[in-house]
Amino acid sequence: MSTGLHKPLIQNAYNARYVPSGHIVFMRFTTLWAVPFDAETLEITGNEVPVIESVESMYPLGRASYAFADDGLLVYLPGGETSGEGNLSKTLLWVDCDGNEQALTTGRDFLVPELSPDGSQIALVIDDGPRENVWILNLERNNALSKLTFDEQGDDYPIWSPDSSRIAFSSFRDGGSIWWKAADGSGEAEALLLNAPGARPLSFTPDGTQLVFTLRGDL
Question: H helices within the chain, ranges in order?
Fold first, then answer.
């Protein structure tokens, strides 16, 4: 808003997002809820209703495993509250709308996969020792994996720029920061935000000129 004023819309909620149906969906504990929202007046226009119970989530970190397609189709992972611990050897699967599965990579401790906007690559975090770093899985080159960041302090939470050319990520370097780098690995990583422990990039504006991030519970 141009005034800079803000007001709470939903109490006791996290991981909220606006969806094409004209609703705000959000997590409350392990349940996904929805409430009608007028994007012009910025007002809630109806009652909150539960949509799906037991969505896999990490409430202390504000994470939840669900997403919406542009046409409003919902995909989610059942499971409820999780610590994120357990067997670190995982299989990354590509699943089509008919439920057919294709394994993309196996046997690696990978986290937070993010599909590029053009659908050709996946950014993910792999713990290959001694720290986690960002890798790229190229779907057009037989699922080849290449390492994007090499910092000894560790990098995490990659997100793509709208044109799929760059990746922003959270880093433990310089006391906590947000950096970005060309997705093809060329050039050096550049700092976007320094001296911000716990800062995490969330999304770019459609034109790629602004970055939304979270820091100490605020956006």
Answer: none
Q: Give the residue ranges of the chain where pLDDT is below 50.
A: 86-88
Distance (Å, rounded) from C-alpha 195 to C-alpha 206? 27
Same domain for 69 and 91, yes or no, is: no
d(CA 132, CA 165): 22
- For residues 92 and 71, state if they share a domain: no
Please tell me the distance from the alpha carbon of residue 124 to that of residue 157, in angstroms, as a whole number: 8
User: Can you give the pLDDT at residue 189?
Assistant: 92
**Of 97, 45, 100, which Cα lies nearest the Cα of 74?**
97
Please check whether residues 93 and 77 belong to one and the same domain.
Answer: no
Of the three residues 55, 85, 115, the one that is the final residue of a domain is 85
Phi, psi of 129 (to 5 degrees): 75, 135
Q: Counting beta carbons within 10 angstroms of the beta carbon of residue 52, is it exposed (0 to 12), middle (13 to 18) or buried (19 or more)?
A: middle
132 and 207 part of one domain: yes
Cα 101 to chain center, whole Å? 22
21 is a domain residue? yes
d(CA 59, CA 33): 15
Per-residue pLDDT tens digits for 140-162: 888 888 999 988 888 999 999 99
Do both 24 and 101 map to the same domain? no
Predicted model pTM: 0.66
- Do 109 and 213 lie in a common domain? yes
What pLDDT score was predicted for residue 149?
A: 93
Phi–psi pair at 59, nearest 5 degrees: -55, -45
> How far apart, in whole angstroms, are the C-alpha atoms of residue 137 and residue 42?
39
